[in-house]
Fold:
Amino acid sequence: MNNAEKTSAVLLGLTAVFVAVGLKCATGFGARAAMPARIPLVETQFLDTATFRKSYAELIRTKADLSDFDCYTCHEKGKPPTLRFDAQHNLIVPKEHEDVVMGHGTHNRNNNCFNCHDEQNLELLQARDGRQIKLAESAPLCGSCHGPTYRDWEAGAHGRTSGYWDRAAGPIKRQICVDCHNPHRPKIPSRTPAPGPHLLHPLAAAAEGAPH
Amino acid sequence: MPPSPSTPKQSNGPSANGLSRRSFLRTSAVLGSGLAALAASLAPLRHLNDFPSVDQFLQKYYKELTPEEMAKVLKRIEDEVEKQYGLLPHTAHVRDRKPMNGVEFVYALNLTRCIGCRKCVHACVAENNQSRTPEIQYIRVVRLPHGSLDLEKAEHNYNPETVPEKGYFYMPVQCQQCKNPPCVKVCPVHATWQDADGITVIDYNWCIGCRYCAAACPYWARHFNFTAPSIPKERLNLDMAYLGNRPRRQGVMEKCHFCVQRTRVGRYPACLEVCPVGARKFGNILDPESEVSYILRTKRVFIQLKEEMGTSPRFFYYFDV
Structure:
């Protein structure tokens, strides 16, 4: 019976080991539980391909509300509005046009509305040589001062493009100056950057995660 | 122990073949728990669902596939993608995009314009089905102080409130599609090669994951899937190319391929279309009318990154002035 008892003890021990191993496998090992945290998806605003602003031409194309551009609901035809300046020769923007921020050009040299707008017909623009230019086709007006940039834009090297590089395969979509630049303050505003790369290793992330 | 009266047929003593009831029960308890433990320890294998199918395992080299075989391969990959992501049948489209005749792609990036907003990084991730966790990004935007192109001073993890920051400029770096690509030279199985239009592509089914190419690339452009990539179903781009943005599996290399699924049908790459300042320009250098031809012809300064490596990139950086 001594032998049988020994066998019993060994088999009992083996059963216990098997049960323990089985339980451990079923519940998973501690090390595997430390999976990296799911990185949050980037916000869809950073995937947006829209331009900074909507130009007059784009508003016409999308059949948007154009009542803001009906100058002669307030102004009187054939009577050019007078401009008022303060002591430093800065233009005083009337409160009806307070959405206009004068910021075109440095050293306050470009502070006259009628450098670009036509004073005889406020719904038109006027180039430096006196040519009248439609609001929706303003690029040549910009080009009358910004020659090299206009040349680059015409060649496709300045400004945004989308669509097809291969003209035989499909159309290219070109943006005009005022699709991106506010004509009254053309500098592109600064913006929040999209999130930078995430470091996968938690320790490395802790060491480098702090904003610089 | 006397035999139990309720079970008169079962003998407790040794039977004809020497197996007692007690030893049978004892042995079966051990065997049973042993088998259960074995099953439990093999349970993780149930989650190994990306085991290659026989067709996938026996697939021929990309350049040796006949059009009929290619069609079968594409169908198989579409089915795999639909199954993996739980999509409706015939929603995923994987196509074999070949280089176009008389086309050599060149990328030009205007360092004067780039504001470092990183939108290109994320548009690329979305277009090319890159893994979100762990994160794989083909484009790395580095911030450099004005007056220097010393990459030792480059900061990758810049995180200001707004960009651009005063005193810095930004340089996005991605695969430079070299004319003399070191990554292609070191690949021991020819899983990566330079196509006629200048794009260096990877056959994800042929890659063995040795990562030699990642070591050879001086631009850190190649990214390895150390773990299984994960893409949320709703962010999956279903317009895919075999050599382009089809989902990769664990253990293969990937990199920027100038969006072959777009550019080889004449479209602009995703990073170009999303750039809010128009700093990115792309086109056919063999066409004298293209934007990139104009830029390389007329812009006064342009650099090839790490020119001294002799890789001759097709990715040019230029300045407006």
